Input
Amino acid sequence: MPIHKDLNLILKRGVAEIIIEEEFRHLLRSGKPLRLKEGFDPSRPDIHLGHVVGLRKLRQLQDLGHKVILIVGDWTAQIGDPSGQSQTRPMLTAGEVQANAETYMKQFFKVVDRDRTEVKWQSEWFGKFDLADVIRLTSKFTVAQIMAREDFSSRQAAGRPIAITELLYPLLQAYDSVVIEADVEFGGTDQKFNLLMGRELQQTVGQRPQQVFMTPLLVGTDGRMKMSKSLGNCITVEDPPNEMFGKLMSVTDHLIMDYFELITDVPDEELTEFRQQLASGSVNPMNLKKRLAWEIVCQFHGRQAAGEAAHRFEKEVQMKEQPDEIPEHLISFERLSEAATVSGLIHELKLAGSRSEAKRLISQGAIEVDGRRISSDMRIVPRDDLANGGGDGEELIFRHGGVIRVGKRRWARIFLKEEISNVGMA
Output
């Protein structure tokens, strides 16, 4: 493929903003290998598809001969968030940072080429910082510049406290760019302020200012909020093939083309055809989602796994057949009686994160026992000689070997242990 076509793909598809695009194009045409800066906070080691949007850009540029500089934020991670505002930035020990970094890099290199990546630990330079270095760094910026960041200004306007240490984070991230002499720094649109701070600091110390490359924020499976593990709307790169396929099939229809554009290599010409088909109603969105799920599962697990996941989805979800293998649990009559209700049992089996979530699933008609949809949080009566049913509508007579289905992809088969004992879940 000619290089100008590569550049158009890199600079236009899945890109929110580049500062300054013309300068960036000039650098790419110069033939000089560029240093591409990517940093990560090791308090959050898991990578989801929202992160993959930017990582794919790094890989595309690596394929043109450029080098990624991965910065592990081990020094700032050991400080934590002094304000207590962020639950995602806890204070970590050196051992925790190391473990998280190893997990992160294992996932990172599923997308980015390890051989064309240089890993730098922030403590290599900040570990040597003294008070004089900190004062020199802070002298490069004004309070007005720092307070221009939206979350700082909004908290100040609301009278909420801002720790001085918090104000240092953008400066520290900017200093990373100076140390490694970054040519380009990557991040989501929510990182724009910090990315521009690096550009500003480099100019101040006489370096050529880095280009800022921002990618869109991918909306999660809930169809509303950006993808986030804490919101429970994410698809991680470590998800098993069947789970990844099923989650992608749950993506709302209006996000289908965003996912195609940001996370797949399906050609633009084909995507244009998909858009036209969706607009005219000439295609069932389900069929496009199957293609989308196959493309993404194939990226992380290979063609065979993607094909098997597609077949399993069609069998278990579309045709509503029981899977060939269902997790089995041995539970005593006593333990089943302690669970008391359907919601309690669902929670005990870890098919729902809490009793309240289980009750919500019941109200949505998302729970079946032996093919019978459960419409209320009935009391459980364990029996091994009767099929489910009976009672006055408020009881569920639960039989030995009963099969529970929660949602479209979670299953459990229960075997009852008759004698009173402390046997729990197997």
Observations:
- The domain at 328-417 is CATH 3.10.290.10 (Structural Genomics Hypothetical 15.5 Kd Protein In mrcA-pckA Intergenic Region; Chain A).
- The first helix runs from residue 3 to 12.
